[in-house]
Amino acid sequence: MFFDISIKDIIDVILVAGFLYYFYRLMKDSGSFNIFAGILVFVVLWVFVSRVAQMKLLGSIFDQLMSVGVLALIIIFQDEVRRFFKNLGSHGHFKMLANLFSRQEKKEDKAAMLPVVMACMSMSQQKVGALIVVEKDESLDEYVKTGEVVDAAIGQRLIEAIFFKNAPLHDGAIIIQDGRISAAQCILPVSHNVNIPKKLGLRHRSAMGISEKTDAVAIVVSEETGGISVAVNGKFKLGLTAQQLEGILSK
Fold this sequence. Notes:
The protein is an alpha+beta fold. It has 11 helices and 7 strands. The protein has helices at 7-30, 33-52, 56-67, 69-76, 78-89, 92-100, 114-126, 141-144, 156-162, 202-213, 242-250; strands spanning 130-134, 148-153, 173-177, 180-186, 217-221, 228-232, 235-237. Strands 2-4-3-1-5-6-7 form a 7-stranded mixed β-sheet, sandwiched between helices. Strand 3 and strand 4 form a beta hairpin. Helix 1 crosses helix 2. The chain is elongated.
């Protein structure tokens, strides 16, 4: 036969196609699709120059560029690479395996999240802006260091007092770790995702940024509309009710 194709070749093609599609979605969500398209064009040119046309001089230059291409891609797409491995490890079976080797098992008291829900609903009615980040498996210590240490039990009145418009700590985010408020006025990474609606402000972009870099849950109360949103795993859930917010925090 002219084409000698085995089952292994078909599986190989399917896996490569799946990987390219996943990488395409990752680049599109992060707003780096133009760079991804440029890389594909460069690879096609390299194959044509080096393998088809066999241009020795230009081909050798392209070969040298390709030899350092992997390192360059890691540097350029370090956030996307981090997110890829985070998503890979967040699947159920891998996460169960990781928990077996975890040094410390976190026991999150679901009842401790109720004051957070009540505070968000109260601030929503009064249109008080707020940004609350709840730590999950990945440590948020590096972001805690950017703010003012609080180290207090979670309380509805305390959260509302922190985000009161004239309070000295109302700017930035509060971070909750192990059922306690660790710090306030924390600085979070701002997402540059072009798919974020323009009507959403800096708080929402900061919430998206921390959810892209970690597995934390970021809660936003809009100062303009009073709407409650949650950013998790690089995605928004907008216009939440108290029951929906409580359900997300209870997982």
